[in-house]
């Protein structure tokens, strides 16, 4: 079986909800990422054999097969097929894993994995809320509710449960949120994101800088934000920001490297997906990471950098504690608390940031982990070449 290689990994700069990317239709935003992957790699667009694109809220402008519409909005040939997938927040990380599996098997040689989410134009939870308004029922059947003893599954509830299980205080979560902003601000000012960001034209010029970073953040201002639940420890300030964005990764096998004279950035070392408790749900990156390390023959000490999505501050903090990881290696350029979490786009977005951080530091192994609705997790290990 052939190895899978990453040739390019790109993303848009994050746009705040109702911010600079609000005017961009999500299909067009994703189409620009597809164009950039082809342009920067120098390949013939006809060589792309498939586009696998993640998107969570597949309704409205993100309905009717957003992956195909992204291809139609790009300069790719209309003969390039596409498929849209939903593994919740891990949708585009799963797109990357599916793309890797395709080229490893030899079924295809060159595949684009991508993701998109406009949380401005298609608000989070729209598929469920619109269906309920139309009287179309709930995604959770009575059988499921009885089995798990809940009326619905909530990521907010899961995050609070994780915080309570690991005994995190609000101050600890707020301190982590502050660090996210500080790291993201430092990385931005140092130009660390320039290679991975695809600028998009907006009303006042070009959008090429993540919009959600608070350069003046401090513990007092973060601590003043209202709690999401009375008596809890979560607030909007220590959770990920709603965000508009798109991302993509060009994945190829060795045959494509030789045929198209391409230089890979990294080899995909391990692909893991796991499922667990759907109620606490967001704790699953912990067993997912353990499984990925065991299957790869690596230890956590072998990993040079980690990207663990900051859906809520307790998730990466619990991950650090449970797997015995080094906090200095975690989300070194900030995370979703500062940079935003564009749901279906976050998987490939984190991979672009992880690879560029590894290359900039001359490091070898990177691990990316994503918590997902329903108690799922994707974990991907890459090796820089």
TrEMBL record:
GO molecular function: acetyl-CoA C-acyltransferase activity
NCBIfam families: AcCoA-C-Actrans (TIGR01930), PRK06504.1 (NF005077)
Keyword Transferase attached: yes
UniProt xrefs under PANTHER family: ACETYL-COA C-ACYLTRANSFERASE, BLR7806 PROTEIN
Residues the record marks as active site: 89 (acyl-thioester intermediate), 341 (proton acceptor), 371 (proton acceptor)
Keyword terms: Acyltransferase, Transferase
Thiolase C-terminal domain span: 263-383
Protein's organism: Steroidobacter agaridevorans
Coiled-coil ranges (or none): none
Thiolase N-terminal domain sequence ranges: 5-254
Name of the molecule in the record: Acetyl-CoA acetyltransferase
Gene3D superfamilies, sorted: 3.40.47.10
Family that this chain belongs to: Belongs to the thiolase-like superfamily. Thiolase family.
InterPro entries according to UniProt: Thiolase, Thiolase-like, Thiolase_C, Thiolase_CS, Thiolase_N
């Amino acid at each position: 079986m052939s190895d899978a290689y990453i040739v390019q990994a790109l993303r848009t700069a994050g746009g705040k909800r109702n911010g600079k990317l609000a005017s961009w239709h999500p299909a067009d935003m994703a189409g620009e990422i597809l164009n950039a992957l082809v342009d920067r790699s120098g390949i013939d667009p006809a060589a792309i054999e498939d586009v696998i694109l993640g998107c969570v809220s597949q309704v409205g402008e993100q309905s009717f097969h957003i992956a195909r519409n992204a291809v139609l909005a790009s300069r790719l040939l209309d003969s390039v097929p596409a498929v849209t997938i939903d593994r919740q927040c891990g949708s585009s990380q799963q797109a990357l894993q599916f793309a890797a599996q395709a080229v490893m098997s030899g079924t295809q040689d060159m595949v684009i994995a991508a993701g998109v989410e406009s949380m401005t134009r298609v608000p989070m939870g729209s598929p469920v809320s619109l269906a309920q308004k139309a009287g179309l029922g709930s995604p959770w059947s009575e059988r499921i509710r009885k089995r798990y003893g809940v009326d619905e599954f909530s990521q907010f509830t899961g995050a609070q449960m994780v915080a309570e299980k690991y005994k995190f205080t609000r101050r600890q979560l707020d301190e982590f949120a502050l660090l996210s902003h500080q790291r993201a601000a430092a990385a931005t000012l140092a130009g660390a994101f320039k290679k991975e960001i695809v600028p998009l034209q907006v009303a006042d010029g070009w959008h090429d800088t993540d919009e959600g970073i608070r350069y003046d953040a401090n513990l007092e201002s973060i601590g003043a934000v209202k709690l999401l639940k009375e008596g809890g420890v979560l607030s909007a300030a220590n959770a990920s920001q709603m965000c508009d964005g798109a991302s993509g990764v060009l994945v190829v096998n060795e045959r494509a490297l030789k045929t198209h004279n391409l230089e890979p950035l990294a080899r995909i070392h391990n692909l893991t997906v796991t499922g667990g408790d759907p109620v606490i749900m967001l704790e699953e990156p912990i067993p997912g990471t353990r499984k990925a390390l065991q299957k790869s023959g690596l230890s956590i000490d072998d990993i040079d950098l980690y990207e663990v999505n900051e859906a809520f501050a307790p998730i990466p903090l619990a991950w650090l504690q449970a797997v015995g990881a080094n906090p200095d290696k975690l989300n070194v350029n900030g995370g979703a608390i500062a940079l935003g979490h564009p749901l279906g786009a976050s998987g490939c977005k984190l991979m672009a940031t992880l690879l560029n951080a590894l290359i900039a530091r001359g490091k070898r192994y990177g691990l990316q982990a994503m918590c997902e609705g329903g108690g799922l997790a994707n974990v991907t290990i890459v090796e820089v070449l």
